[in-house]
Amino acid sequence: MRIKNLTSITFVAAGLLALASCSNNNNTRTTIGDDGHLLWFNSLQMEAPATLGPTTLQIAQENIAKYWKSDRKVDLKLNSEAAAELGTEGFEIDFSGANICASANSEVGLLYASYELLRLQETDGLAAQNGKLTSVPAFERRVLNHWDNLDGTVERGFAGHSLWKWDEINANDVAANSNIYAEYARANASVGINGTVLNNVNANADILTEDYLLKVKALAEIFRPYGLKVYLSLNFAAPKHLANLETSDPLDNEVVAWWNAKVAEIYKLIPDFGGFLVKANSEGQSGPQDYGRTHADGANMIAKALEPFGGIVMWRAFVYDAKSPDRAKQAVEEFMPLDGQFAENVLIQIKNGPVDFQPREPFSPLFGQFEKTQAMVEVQITQEYLGHSNHLVYLHPMWKECLDSDTYERGEGSTVGAITEGKVMPYKYTAIAGVSNVGNDRNWCGHHFAQANWYAYGRMAWNPELSSEQIANEWLMQTFSKEKKFVEPVGKLMVASREACVKYEMPLGLHHTFKGPDHYGPGPWDRSIRPDWEPAYYHKAAADGVGFDRTMNGSGAVAQYHEPLQSLYNNVATCPENLILWFHHLPWDYKMKSGRTLWDELCLTFQSGINDARSFVDIWNSVEQYVDHQRFADVKAKLERQAKDAIWWRDATIQYFQQFSGMALPEGCQPFQQKLEKLMKYRIGITNYENPKIETLPEYKLE
Ligand code: BDP
Q1: How far apart are the first and last CA of the chain?
Q2: Catalytic residue status for 401
């Protein structure tokens, strides 16, 4: 059809819309949110916010004025008398009177209260409320880490390009900027996220130039009414790069003066600037060790500059050396000798596990070991190792597993969560970080269900007690449909999806068996420029068995855990089987608790992961009537892809291991669909970590 003029375009568009709604039955909400852009505001059909304008209080008031549907009036009250324990961000909602009364010490507390009310309304949670609901965030700083580069690419980003259009950000007329930034800030505020690190930890020093800082200021002004503070990743060598100093030595007076002046310049522009995130002396990034100084010297120099302004340093513990026989031990080895040396406004930002965001790792032992240093957890929301934005993997169960892990370091109950919330030792600052999965894709996160991970991260950072089920269900109700026949099965699917991914990617404690460097797809044979980037470093598959011996007879990493964990992990008979190959190298015919050999168990666990992924397609097909056609089709295609990928992962990993075990597939396993030789030849064309473009995906059949 040739479209001749504007009128006919409108006509065609209207016709398509009409068609779309005809093709769905009554239960389906065919809305303008079909493309997923409205996130969890879909059920409210929230309008796009203005880029700039209303104050925090006005946003809270408008939330209620526009979107509150009940006859009961809501009063928003600032500075209530009873509210001291609510702190600066908490709120109380009193449902007992004729009017519902929300009170808080600050405007942002009321803003959070308004989102809580809307969430309760949209998830049928109001009826259960009759007394007072008090809500105070568990972590003071609930931060997103964007690994966004200044050139617009996103490291490990799978949702298009960076949201930040640095070339287009208008520093002189903030209101003229795109309102996507306000939409982004609103989404964060609605789930309690109050900080955002705008740039990649592999930081370009240029972010600290005046040109960029003016743009950062413009973004900060858009974010401010939503309670969202801006932080930046810094490049430790910035004094050399930007000011041509001869050194970036943290004990050099000129360097110290440069940072002091730079920090003062930032606070002049952005009075509520949150602070810096630092990746130093890791994977080629510069750091204090370049000058014979320690992480503490480096962190404290920056911390001192920030201190008068209330800023913090989040100094990452992600360090490892190519020559080490066990990378999992290195953060403890490098940071424990510095315990007690860090300034009060330094937090050590530690990945949940000791290696690198694998589908399952034990918790990092550094959390418990620190006695005098504030630790914070870093989780990864973007699915670097969990199927990128092609797989539906709801990550909350994985993060909660870490927060709920008991370190036993300060007696029973000193969980990672309790420690980092400052409940075990008093912390001046508490924080949590999540590596963002947001890009400029229309649906923000690449996969519609990846939005749930952004949502869940915020909800967890505010309240780590919430269950995975609750968060999944409330997200589904707001994002898709309140229909019980939809929420129940799909909620279960979400909660099961992380374990499914562990099973089809790398079960029983296996880790890092990916194809590099994109970390998508199986590649246990893969080679790299560094031995510790090669899968064989981790799986150690050989004729005598598989797994990494981290016992006292092996690398000794178990010794970094407090008793009873040390003995529990060290002893193969007591080591949890879901981590057994993390801690033990075992013969292929090792007898598992099920009575099966390790080999059979491995094959059958992969198969069970395939079955789960396959069942997700069926579950999704069964709820078609409750989902708009566009999101239904998008998710269906990705779920099919995920189920095929699960077979691919199994085919490749098991056939590769079979070369060493010499054992056959046990009964209950589907035959291989593709031969190892062929699978080893597949190359995936991913460049710049942008949307994965798989050019040569092996052909798989689902049936
Ligand atoms: C690894 C990523 C790499 C990051 C690094 C980090 O592969 O792209 O730069 O972590 O956290 O997981 O610094």
Answers
A1: 38
A2: no
Distance from C-alpha of 539 to C-alpha of 523, rounded to nearest angstrom: 11
278-295 exposure pattern, b = at least 16 Cβ within 10 A, e = fewer = bbbbbeebbbbbbbebbb
Kindly name the residue from 211, 283, 465, 589 that is annotated as catalytic: 283
Task: Using the mean position of ligand 1's atoms as its centre, give its distance from the Cα of residue 434 in Å.
Answer: 13
Half-sphere CA count of 221, side-chain side, radius 13 A: 21
Q: 287 CA distance to ligand 1 centroid (A)?
A: 16
Quick one: three-class SS letters along 433-470?
A: EEECCCCCCCCCCCCHHHHHHHHHHHHHHHCCCCCHHH
Q: How far apart are CA 348 and CA 331, in angstroms?
A: 11
The reported pLDDT for the residue numbered 147 is 98
Ligand 1 near 514 CB (within 6 A): no
10 Å CB burial of residue 592 (0-12, 13-18, 19+) is middle
CA gyration radius for the chain?
Answer: 26
Q: Which fold has domain 141-467?
A: TIM Barrel (3.20.20)
Please choose from 149, 197, 201, 519 the residue to mutate so as to test ligand 1's pocket, defined by most ligand atoms within 8 A of CB: 201
For the chain, how are helix, strand and coil distributed in percent, rounded to 5?
A: 45, 10, 45
pLDDT single digits (tens) 306-322:
999 999 999 999 999 88
The pLDDT tens digits for 557-591 are: 999 999 999 999 999 999 999 999 999 999 999 99
d(CA 424, CA 405): 14
Where are the chain's structural domains?
7-135, 141-467, 480-546+585-703, 549-582
* Beta carbons within 10 angstroms of residue 698's beta carbon: 19
Q: Is 156 in the pocket of ligand 1 (CB under 6 A)?
A: yes
Mean pLDDT taken over the chain: 93
Which pTM was predicted? Answer: 0.94
Residue nearest to atom 9 of ligand 1 (CA): 202
Per-residue buried b or exposed e for 608-637, using 16+ beta carbons within 10 Å of the residue's own CB: bbbbbbbebbeebeebeebbbbbbbebbee
Q: 480-546+585-703: same fold as 141-467?
A: no
Q: Which DSSP state fits 423?
A: S
User: What pLDDT is attached to residue 2?
Assistant: 31
The tens digit of pLDDT for each residue in 271-285 reads: 999 999 999 999 999
Q: Is the distance from the beta carbon of residue 202 to the nearest atom of ligand 1 less than 6 Å?
A: yes
Handedness of CA 182, 184, 190, 196 (dihedral sign): negative
Is 228 exposed, middle or buried, given 0-12, 13-18 or 19+ CB atoms closer than 10 A? buried
Q: Which atom of ligand 1 is nearest to the CA of 200?
A: 9
Please state the length of the chain: 703
Q: From residue 551, how far is each of 126, 560, 566 by CA, in Å?
A: 52, 11, 9
Q: Does the annotation count 283 as an active-site position?
A: yes
Q: Are 627 and 480 in contact (CB under 8 A)?
A: yes
Torsion of CA 326, 328, 331, 337, to 10 degrees: -60
What's the gap in Å between 275 CA and the centre of ligand 1? 21
What is the distance in A from the centroid of ligand 1 to the CA of 282? 10
Confirm whether 85 is a catalytic residue.
no
Please, which pLDDT band fits residue 688 given cuts at 50, 70 and 90? very low
CB of residue 384 inside a 6 A radius of ligand 1: yes
**What Cα–Cα distance (Å) separates residue 255 from each residue in 243, 337, 692?**
10, 25, 41
696 C-alpha to ligand 1 centroid (Å):
25
Instruction: Report the candidate in 574, 521, 562 with the shortest Cα–Cα distance to residue 694.
Output: 521
* Among protein residues, the one whose CA lies closest to atom 1 of ligand 1: 356
Q: Considering only the top CATH level, what class is 480-546+585-703?
A: alpha beta
